[in-house]
# Entry
Amino acid sequence: MLEADGYQVVGEAQDGRSGIAAARALRPDIVLLDVNLPDLDGFEVASALTGADDAPIVVLTSSRELGDINGLAVRSRARGFVAKADLSGAALDALSR
# Structure
């Protein structure tokens, strides 16, 4: 879906630790990060990725609504949140500017 909206997907990861490793190796501009991961949660991963000066933009996503997780999302230093039902290239564009 994101590729159809002009995004190039450069990597995928199955869990938080491999996501951190992939993001550090691939150095993407944007990381789309699920909140629910099998090892670390997405908030921990977002915090780990956003600590550097050259950090990617991190956008959290979940099938849950933001109201349930808003405080955790803010503390993670992610750029924003997009519910999976609303995920689109336009939604990522709005957060990456």
